[in-house]
Amino acid sequence: MNFPSKLIEQAVMELNRLPGIGKKTALRLALNILNRPEEDAEALGNALIKLRKQIQYCQTCFNISDESICAICNNPSRKKETICVVESMRDVIAIENTNQYYGVYHVLGGCISPIDGIGPEQLNIEALTARVADGNVSEIILALSPTMEGDTTLYYLSKQLEEHDIKLTTLARGVSFGGELQYVDELTLGRSLATRRPYNNMI
Predict the structure, then answer these.
(1) Region for residue 168 given its phi and psi (left: phi exceeds 0; alpha: psi -120 to 50; beta: otherwise)
(2) Which CATH class is domain 6-54?
(3) φ, ψ for residue 151 (rounded to 5)?
(4) Average pLDDT value for the chain
(5) Which of 127, 140, 157, 194 has the fewest beta carbons closer than 10 A?
(6) Can you name the CATH fold of 75-202?
């Protein structure tokens, strides 16, 4: 692709590095930014810089946050005795959009995947068991994607948590096997949460 300007080329190359953005889409975005008022481009740039430099991760649940403790963990109306365990903050957003869940979360940061070199020690599992050991948790919802990696992680977590007197549940399989939670429609995900079942009944 030939560019009339090195500056346009640089902008396209940077945008093209984003997932799902091809060079044609990157060019269209760059030209759109160029045609907008200068203050719009500055606002976009400042927002991205602040996002990268100022975003934090909640010290309790590891969700993205503006503060050391996220808004969900800080919300007194959330049911702190129920923890929904998810792979990433994108899953938190997906579940929140269902308006079917009123507990808190724990973001693992991925799933166990030996082929990718990801073991339990790379995930926020120890922090989860510490939260449970505090004694204020009555239910853990294992809301992981129904994939081989997700099921491996479910099994590992169930073994880590079996010594605690808590209810361990997982999503109903309205979520198809092999899919990713973040791409499930809100109605299906909401129903899967509402009809969650004891994990021991799944194995």
Answers:
(1) beta
(2) mainly alpha
(3) -65, -35
(4) 87
(5) 194
(6) Dna Topoisomerase Vi A Subunit; Chain: A, domain 2 (3.40.1360)
How far is it, in rounded angstroms, from Cα 167 to Cα 186? 25
CATH 3.40.1360.10 residue ranges of the chain are 75-202
Strand-pair category, 167-170 with 139-142: parallel
Q: CA–CA distance from 110 to each of 100, 161, 184, 197 (Å)?
A: 23, 18, 17, 22
What is the enclosing helix (H) or strand (E) of 197? Answer: strand 197-198
Judged on CB neighbours under 10 Å (0-12, 13-18, 19+), 153 is buried
Q: pLDDT tens-digit profile of 76-99? A: 999 999 999 999 999 999 999 988
Q: Is the pLDDT of residue 187 over 80?
A: no
Q: Which residue has the tokens 């308006």?
A: 99
Using an 8 Å Cβ cutoff, are 169 and 141 in contact? yes
Selection from 197, 129, 131 nearest residue 167 by Cα: 197
Which of 85, 68, 109 has the alpha carbon at shortest distance from 171? Answer: 85
This prediction has a pTM of 0.77
